[in-house]
Amino acid sequence: MSELAEIYVAAADDTLCRALREQKRHSGAWRIDVLDVAFGAPGDQAIVIVDFGDPADRDETLAALDAQGFGGAALVLGGAGEGWPDAEPLARPVRLGALIGRLEAHATPPADTAEMRLGPYDFVPSERILRHGASGEEVRLTELEQRLLGYLAAAGGFVDRDRLLDQVWGYRTGADTHTVETHVWRLRQKIETDDPATRFLVTEVGGYRIIVGDTGEAV
User: Fold this and answer.
1) DSSP string, 163-177
2) Which of 1, 105, 150, 157 lies in the 20 to 30 Å Cα band around 203?
3) Angle in degrees, CA 57, 61, 66, rounded to 5
């Protein structure tokens, strides 16, 4: 990682913060801080870990981040809840090594950051936006939405669900989760309109493909 990764922990105590700070392998690359939503959400490049045993505390924190417009990655120990489907749930008990693996995946920038045309939009990974070519209107993407679009576009064809779970989310093959379907559904709510040209994310049996360019040719 070329830049310092900002990681914030929202928890009832500092146990997880201390455990992460003790990881010498990342001591020069990660900055671990306690999250206090009363002072506002961190920037969209940050990673937030929500670790509360009480679901009410967890949901309150996620609701505050949502209200403050946080668009970065959120890892939720114990489950994300219906109010924040963009967050990545990690079932308890969570091994520290597995959590660190997910942090590494989120902190590593996508290999391909080149701009490209997706339907009527210009996809700008470095700014995490889709910009409409005609109107200039911008659609803000979450960190996972950016990774999902980037991976599908770079793949050059159909990508099955298990491959997306492995390469974008880091889940084992065959994981029993609807996270891909949920993220695709939410992304479509943001980008699709009555204009057929906005429907460049195509569902096929078992996976997805994406339309690159604005000619209507699917890859």
Assistant:
1) HHIIIII-PPTT---
2) 105
3) 145
Please report whether residue 218 resides in a domain: no
Tell me the per-residue pLDDT of 67-121, one tens digit each, with 9 for 90 and over. 888 878 888 898 765 556 567 888 788 888 888 888 887 777 655 567 889 989 9
Provide the β-strand partners of residue 201: 210
Read off φ and ψ for residue 129, nearest 5 degrees. Answer: -140, 160
DSSP category for residue 211: -
Q: pLDDT (tens digit, 9 = 90+) per residue, 110-158?
A: 555 678 899 899 999 888 899 998 899 999 888 888 888 988 888 878 9
The type of residue at 41 is A
Is there a single domain that holds both residue 95 and residue 155? no
- The CATH number of whichever domain residue 204 belongs to comes to 1.10.10.10
Give me 193's structure tokens.
């309109």
**Same domain, residue pair 9 and 101:** yes
Contact 120, 214 (CB under 8 A): yes
Tokens in use for 147? Answer: 């990774």
Whether the Cβ atoms of residue 86 and residue 74 lie closer than 8 Å to each other:
yes
Q: State the Cα–Cα distance between residues 88 and 95, nearest whole angstrom.
A: 15
**What does pTM read for this prediction?**
0.63
Assess contact for 50 and 10: CB atoms under 8 A.
yes
CB 76 within 8 A of CB 90: yes
